[in-house]
Amino acid sequence: MNKMNDFTSQKDLSNAKPVSLRFSGTDEQMAAGIKHGHPGAMEALFNRYAAHVERIVNRLLGVDTESADVVQDIFVAAFSNIHGLKDDSAIKGWLTSLAVFTVRQRIRKRVRRRVHWIYDVDVNETEYQPVKPSDRELLRLTYQVLDAMPTDERITFSLRFIEGMEITEVADVCSVSPSTVKRRQRRAEKKFLALSRRFPALIEQIERGDRWRNQ
Amino acid sequence: MNLQRQKLTAFGKHIGAIEDGILASDSCLNDVKKQLSFMATDYSKPRRRPYRIVLGVAAALVTAILLVFFLRDESITAEYNGQALTGGNWISSNDAARATIHFSDGAMVSLEGRSRIRINQMHKNGAHLLLEAGKIKLNVPHRAQTAWRIDVGPYIIQVIGTRFSVAWDGDVESMELRMTEGVVSVSGPMITGHKEVRSGERLAISTQTGRLEFLTNNSPTTSMSEEPAILAEPSAVEKDNSASIEQPTENNSDERSSHRQMQHPPPLKKWKSAAEAGRYAESVRLATAAGISRILASADGADLLLLGDAARHSGNISLAQKAYRTTYQRFSGSGFSSNAAFALGVIAFDRTADYGTAIKWFSEIVKSKRNKSHLHREACGRLMESYNRLGNNSLARKTAQQYISLYPNGPHHLLAEQILTP
After folding, report:
1. Which chain B residue shows the shortest CA-CA distance from A190?
2. Residue B149 — φ and ψ, nearest 5°?
């Protein structure tokens, strides 16, 4: 029996509920699918870009137990406000902008509430494959320094140096001009180095420069 | 690119690589995906009557994004006895007075007996609480976006709408969760992945004795010491769960074998090997199975410090503190004792910003007069920093002067100079 006969009828397909369909398509098709309520498209957005969003969140906040809440908030915002996306093909950049704005708000709230986020404990609360204690200490010190920096400079530093974004990319996701990014970067470099001098272990690692490649 | 920027670029890449290594094995995405509902119709709002936007495309997008984050800044609020609560507040009750906290999303948290909780954070979909000791009852209304979290010792309970009670005894490291209505997801030591606990079910775990009980009906007379360790057959509910309950031993092949192993715990040395290899979570599990009390009573100073470090690095802060305090008491006056005091000071400083307690521990080392040792130098620096953070300027200046005289080129010398600058 030709199984294809079961699915070739246009009438059958038009009555079929799309709920169980897995979505596949370009970013533009996916964004359009979400706008029209295709549940597979929403899940596809998550499957396609959740790892990217999680990485951006962790670059900006550090590996943190708050990350799950933040990632969830970003996707809830994306699903709820997809109609604000004008260029469907630019959904990845739009999602990255949402991530940066969400984390920015989170960082500013932390500063206002004077909550002291202890990076060491947050990292250690997760069960993950062992990270060398020296690497863990390095991460802790790095984010302790970043916590002491102004929010915009901290975000610029993380996106430029830790995530490795180009200046134009940072400008796009932060919705500022490239010259503003350059200004913030200059201030961020100066501030990061000045604050790092409080921690000899950290400044020593920075001074080692590209000798990291051989580690 | 100038040299300084080159170095920062290389440094940043290294930090990114470390983070990527962590995320590769400990991503939060599975948990997030479970919380999101891709079938929910309230996300999508198909425009039946599209209308023209007069503003330019760029201005409209920026406006939409700004509005989203302005409106989404709202979080739930909480009040207790007519007073508004904020993130970071501790609330406690005693035998005479029960405490009930009311949240703006309709949730209620009641503290029973001598209990103490902390509101870590409130957000628009719920709150993140820490149960430090005692017992609480929660009633959280279910909504599509409800996302509450309760930290109970090393356990995490994710709540999406339910009524239940949970108790934590830090001295014996035991948790008991009784579900009245709804379902919660529990993760932590002795549980693989997540364990869902539903209405009418009870989960009781003691990481210290290695005992875990999961019962499908609540009996008011049931207690951990009376009940058998594990049900022989998984219940229908357990079979539906994607996660499984991990036996507190290395051999999970069958229940009788596991029960034998609980009567004859693994040798004490296995937890040490795991700790020395950097497998901290595994080390704590093995130490728990071997019997924490046995280890605390019999191990030498080096092993106790190792246990404390393994516990601290795997996030079990209460066990870490217990191990360090035992070291400090049993080996008083020795180098082990000083190292334990330093570790306790670091936990107080870094973990809870409890600078008063940190001062107490760092002072123990400073006054021991083991000058010029690495530990003494670090303790002096941290002591100065603690006084500075507490705002005790006179003692901060005094310790800064001592630090500069003893360690003019030490890692805290810049801070000392800053404190001494008028």
Report:
1. B4
2. -140, 135
Helix (H) or strand (E) holding A129: none
Quote the percentage of chain A above a pLDDT of 90.
40
For A21, nearest residue in chain B (alpha carbons): B39
Given an 8 Å threshold on Cβ–Cβ distance, is A139 in contact with B25? Answer: no
Q: Does B49 touch chain A (CB under 8 A)?
A: no
Residues 281-320 of B with CB under 8 A from A: 281, 312-315, 317
Please give the helix or strand (H or E) that residue B196 lies within, else none.
Answer: strand B195-198
ipTM score for this prediction: 0.82
Q: Burial level of B131, CB count in 10 A (0-12/13-18/19+)?
A: buried
The answer to whether the predicted template modeling score (pTM) of the entire model surpasses 0.80 is no
Nearest alpha carbon to residue B35 among A172, A9, A68: A68
Dihedral of CA B378/B381/B384/B389: which sign? negative
Q: Which of A4-8, A114-118, A167-171, B297-301 has the highest mean pLDDT?
A: A167-171
Amino acid at position B296, single letter = L
Burial of B368 (0-12, 13-18, 19+ CB in 10 A): middle
* Cβ–Cβ gap A126/B29 under 8 Å: no
| Contact yes or no for B340/B320 (Cβ under 8 A) | no
Determine the pLDDT at residue B60: 55
With beta carbons less than 8 A apart as the criterion, state whether B156 and B187 touch: yes
The DSSP H or E segment spanning B100 is strand B99-103
Helix (H) or strand (E) holding B342: helix B335-346
Q: What is the pLDDT of residue B39?
A: 53
pLDDT digits (tens, 9 = 90+) for A30-49: 998 888 877 788 889 999 99
In a mutational test of the A interface, the residue from B43, B118, B418 whose CB has the highest number of chain A CBs within 10 Å is B43
Locate B346 and state its tokens.
């670091």
Contact flag A84-B65 (C-beta cutoff 8 Å): yes
Contacts for B26-29 with beta carbons within 8 Å, 24 or more apart?
B26/A63, B26/A126, B26/A127, B26/A128, B26/A129, B27/A51, B27/A54, B28/A54, B28/A67, B28/A68, B28/A71, B29/A50, B29/A51, B29/A54, B29/A71
From residue B395, how far is each of A9, B174, B342, B376, B387 by CA, in Å?
85, 41, 19, 18, 6
Judged by DSSP in three states, B183 sits in: strand
Q: A170 to chain B nearest CA, in Å?
A: 15
pLDDT in tens, B104-162: 888 889 888 878 888 878 888 888 888 877 889 998 887 767 788 888 877 888 886 78
Establish if B23 touches chain A: CB-CB under 8 angstroms.
yes
At position B365, the amino acid (one-letter code) is: I
